[in-house]
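Kindly review these tokens for lecture notes.

. . .
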Amino acid sequence: MTDNYLITDEKPDSVEGFTFQYKYLGAEQMMLKDSYDYLLLNKGFCLLTKVDGSGLLFSAGSLAQYDSCDDAELVKRVDGIVSPRVLLPKHEFNVSRFSVSMLDELEKTIAKGITYIIETGGKAVCAMGLSPLRGYGKETAKGLRKIEGNEGGFGDAVKLLVDKTGDELIFYSAKPVLKLNPETPIYKVMGEIYTHLIDVMSKNTDGIINDVDIEFLHDFRVSVRRIRSALSLVRGVFDKDMEKEFRVRFKNLGGLTGVARDMDVYLDRIEDYERMLPGWLKGGMAELADYFKKTREAEYRKLSDYLLSGEFEKLCTDWINVVSDDKYAASKGKKPVLPLAKKAIRQAFNEIEKQADGMSTETHSDAVHEIRISFKKIRYLLEFYSSLFDKEKTAPMLKDMKALQDSLGDHNDYYVQQLALEELVENGKWSPQTASACGFLSAVLAERQMAEREKALRLIIQFMRYKPLFGELFK
């Protein structure tokens, strides 16, 4: 079966010089399954499940059929794309199938294939897959070019239909994606950025409260961090007392998410921890995992209570009211965005340069953590203002920065996890096996941390070769 279709709003009956004949083959109710943010569809995959529980996975150029959505091969393919997100039922479709023949002016069949009509909520798309008969390839292509539509896979047809339903999550992006005018006053730009980040937080609250998967808290937490970084790095855009007030309020919100996120990370890595241990210590992981789960449940309850209390909604509303009201714009905020964006990025890079100077394998972990935070801040600035600069020049830099941040993140995780394990043993009443397992894990994590530190330092030195580019782009 083909996965290359002509996608249109309805079945074409005829175009100049060509007609189409259809024969109804049947229809089925199918459920589209995907992650909250449509990771499968946006990667070119489409997972449909039937009433009997079987599944169809469309991908570029192929269709795989599975008797069950629990099939090990299907789970492996899907998890590799969506994890740590989970699959959710997204939309129910009626999928009708037709055989289709394409005829020329002499009513001679020149191509045959299958056409799908996919419908939901009064909206529909048509996906027509035709294969030319021998010798009619050019004529078939000529006829298809006369039909108003787009070529794509079955997943592209489904994505178009999801868009037609008004489901904005098909375009979900945790990062602000803006097309900026260099002359726009910076307070308007920052207002758009803050509004987007508040929207991302709001979209993720239900997933946190209902504990759907750990990415809801992750995206929520990163949005809080982006807001806090912007308030710190791009100061004086709004009334200074307002900025000061909201720096405190968003800092407090960030503090509410810290332990819950730590527990998510620890539980996500519990199998990795167990693999680090010799056989005689593996049993110690059960007690530790149970502690992480109970702590996580308590922290999620605390966070959920806050999100449901009305305080979170008030924080968001208060901040949106400030950033969308001209009266709160400071004199600096009314200046064009481009020179101020350049200055903020330049200052952020200068801070990194100072922190990197003299850094070695002997540098304390806290100092390595500080430069990690500085790289996060400059990345956020580059994301905010990306459309103002030459993408061909910034893309390689951002790619290298991502690798560097991954390394610095792993280094910090190893360090924080060591401290957490040591504190647990010191303050808790654990079985001898669990205490020994924590000690062994701490030693392994220390070794990994040192290896990661050497890697991170190499990447930092390599990254500093972008200094001339920073000077060119952000002077």
Observations:
- The chain has a mean pLDDT of 94.
